[in-house]
Design goal:
- The chain is mainly beta.
- The protein has 6 domains: 9-266; 272-345; 348-421, Immunoglobulin-like (Sandwich), CATH 2.60.40; 424-497; 499-573; 576-654.
- 1% of the residues lie in helices and 46% in strands.
- The radius of gyration is 75 Å and the shape is rod-shaped.
- The chain starts with 8 loop residues before the first strand and ends with a strand.
Length: 696
């Protein structure tokens, strides 16, 4: 190989003096670093060239990739792609000179990003693949004149494909020379743009030959398939008809079995079923309304116009699933359709706004179910159609949950919380059983039944109980304190009746007294069972007749935790006056013939007794001379006797007697005739008168 182009060529390329204008509008630039291959070369590894010119055979094998960053020209020799790939970033030209080179792609791929010209000899596709990024030109020549023009043939006889992204031009020579320019017995030729055939010179009918065509459809797209021979005639063409026919009368050595076959080809009409349809959305979320993604329709590089070239319709484009967009050709594309699918996904309801009809409740024992309003993307969803509703923790006090679960066009879940507050137990009906007790000294805790309406609450779960003042007699309280689903409190009462003293035992100490002039209060011991009661706490005591001799009484009256009365008596014995001190007002008398009665003063323990109340006085031997006796006899609070003596002297002689006055008839007036008992002697002052004379 040798580099044959030392600079840049920007011109209408000429190879072997044959202008490429015969093939079409060809101009290009070969880089200064382009290589020329002059000797047969085999490439089995990946290589890259800036440009490439073949003057000899080049074989690509072993899966190698030859990359040409510029143009490639097959001027002589043969490009044989047996097992590999040739990528031409620019244009590819097979020389139009009669003696030019050939190409065989039957074992690999030729990928031309620009234009492909076939100007001479055969371009054999075989089982390979040819990709033309722009246009494909197939040139014809003539047998007269100078220079002799080449006659290029595109031969498709294997399973290979030729995919032309844009236009294909078949240039018919002015003089038919070597028969068929396109030999399509098998494989597939796809043309994305216009397929045109032109005639040069005086030849009025083209010699282009199509062995068979299975479909000519889509604007600017033609698929020729050599698997079977058939005649295709399209109707309703808008832009006229180009007739391509076989005129092989001058041909030799070619298959003439189908000579005369005529193909009517629509040069302007198209088929949208072969178009590339791109949607603005391949997936969309369900909204409840129709979803209509915009469609872009292209045939080759041409973008079709909606309303001019096609209309758009949609189906199944509301509910989740597979929806369809149908492109229906009109005008030049009438009678053809293309359908592409897109997906409508169920919308996730997790982004919804959920409003509850009620967010706070008071516990009732029943389920709380606020009605939800669900809004997503400005749309109010419908219960039962777009979602279902469930509730949890919606009976007892606490945070309850309303769960929205997507349905139909919606998926996922969204939850909203609401609150169940405790119910006040203050309105409960409380029954205490038993409702009364008798005091025992122990605490009483009656059972309680608490009802809210018809529901009986459970102790320890719904409420707790406390008791106050539940030992002593009175009216204790029972306090019901709400818990769990209840709060607040409710108070009830019951009775503790005082215990009767009727069965009490009473012990007195002492059991009897002797009158002393003071009140007698024996010590009382009161017992109920083994318990000794406390005076003034459990009972009080009153006495009667306990300050004089005789039978005194006591009354025990229950107080506090006790009730009822106990009555009893005890004895106060009279005090014996035998030990009294008795003082007589006069201890010596002279007998006068009358009774002598000295006034006694009686004292017991320092107390002066009262005559007639505490004692009575009697005299004996008091009317004669000698020893007389004054006897004190206890009465009332006193008993017994005490005697004291006094003396009555015998009178003196008579003379003496005659001189004395008898005072028995005297008048005695006392200074005080009434007294109140004081325990001391009462001594009124006497005034004695005899015959008007006051004695002293």
């Amino acid at each position: 190989m040798k580099k044959v182009i030392a600079g840049l060529l920007a011109l209408t390329m000429t190879v072997s003096s044959v202008p490429f204008a015969q093939l079409g509008d060809f101009s290009g630039v070969l880089a200064a670093s382009a290589l020329t291959i002059d000797t047969a070369t085999v490439i089995s590894n990946n290589v890259t060239y800036d440009g490439l010119v073949l003057n000899s055979d080049l074989t690509v094998t072993n899966g190698a990739t030859v990359t040409v960053n510029g143009d490639m020209i097959v001027d002589g020799g043969k490009l044989d792609i047996q097992n590999g790939k040739v990528i031409v970033m620019g244009n590819f030209a097979q020389n139009s000179q009669y003696t030019g080179g050939s190409t065989d792609v039957s074992g690999g791929t030729l990928d031309v990003r620009g234009d492909l010209w076939i100007g001479d000899k055969e371009f054999n596709v075989g089982d390979g693949n040819v990709i033309v990024g722009n246009n494909l030109y197939l040139a014809g020549g003539h047998s007269t004149g100078t220079p002799i023009m080449g006659y290029g043939k595109l031969v498709m006889s294997g399973s290979g494909t030729v995919d032309v992204q844009n236009n294909m031009v078949i240039k018919l020579p002015s003089v038919a020379r070597y028969g068929k320019q396109l030999i399509l017995t098998s494989g597939t030729l796809s043309v994305g743009g216009d397929l045109t055939s032109t005639v040069s010179g005086s030849q009025s009918a083209g010699t282009t030959y199509y062995n068979s065509i299975t479909s000519v459809s889509d604007e600017h797209k033609t698929v020729l398939d050599g698997n079977s021979a058939q005649k295709v005639s399209l109707s309703g063409l808008k832009l006229g008809t180009v007739e391509l026919q076989q005129n092989g009368s001058n041909y030799t050595g070619d298959d003439t079995s189908t000579i005369g076959q005529v193909v009517n080809y629509n040069a302007g009409g198209g088929d949208v079923s072969k178009a590339t349809v791109t949607l603005s959305q391949n997936t969309a979320a369900y909204t409840g309304s129709e979803i209509k993604p915009a469609a872009t329709v292209k045939i080759g590089s041409k973008v079709l116009t909606q309303g001019t070239d096609y209309t758009v319709s949609y189906s199944n484009n509301t509910a989740p699933g597979t929806a369809s967009c149908t492109i229906t050709g009109i005008n030049n594309y009438e009678g053809t359709t293309a359908t592409v699918n897109f997906t409508i996904n169920a919308a996730n309801i997790s982004g919804a706004i959920v409003s509850l009809s009620q967010t706070t409740y008071t516990y009732s024992g029943n389920e709380c179910k606020p009605a939800p309003t669900v809004t997503l993307a400005g749309r109010t969803l419908k219960n039962g159609t777009d979602y279902t509703v469930s509730y949890s923790k919606n009976v007892d006090k606490g945070n309850a949950v309303c769960t929205i679960t997507g349905k139909g066009g919606y998926t996922g879940t969204k939850s909203a919380n609401f609150t169940i507050g405790a119910q006040s137990i203050s309105t409960a009906d409380v029954t205490v059983s038993p409702s009364s007790y008798t005091y025992s000294g122990s605490a009483f805790s009656p059972d309680v039944t608490v009802k809210m309406g018809t529901k009986t609450l459970t102790k320890g779960t719904d409420y707790s109980v406390t008791y106050n003042n539940n030992i002593k007699a009175g009216t204790p309280t029972v306090t019901i304190i709400g818990s769990g689903n209840y709060n607040g409190s409710k108070t009830a009462t019951f009775k503790i009746e005082p215990l009767s003293l009727s069965k009490a035992t009473v012990t007195l100490s002492p059991t009897s007294f002797t009158y002393s002039g003071t009140t007698c209060t024996p010590t009382l011991t009161v017992k109920l069972g083994s318990k000794t009661l406390t005076k003034n706490t459990d009972y009080k005591v009153t006495y009667d007749n306990n300050n004089k001799a005789g039978t005194a009484s006591y009354t025990i009256t229950g107080t506090g935790n006790y009730s009822g009365e106990i009555k009893g008596t005890f004895t106060i014995a009279p005090q014996d006056v035998s030990s009294a001190t008795v003082t007589l007002s006069q201890t010596t008398y002279t007998y006068s013939g009358s009774e002598c009665k000295p006034t006694p003063t009686v004292k017991v323990g320092g107390k002066t007794l009262t005559s007639g109340t505490d004692y009575k006085v009697s005299y004996s031997n008091n009317n004669k001379a000698g020893t007389a006796t004054c006897t004190i006899t206890g009465i009332g609070n006193y008993t017994g006797t005490k005697s004291v003596n006094f003396t009555i002297k015998a009178p003196a002689s008579s003379s003496s007697t005659a001189s004395k006055t008898n005072i028995s008839g005297a008048t005695v007036t006392l200074s005080q005739t009434t007294y109140t008992y004081s325990g001391s002697e009462c001594k009124p002052t006497p005034t004695v008168k005899v015959g008007g004379k006051t004695l002293t």
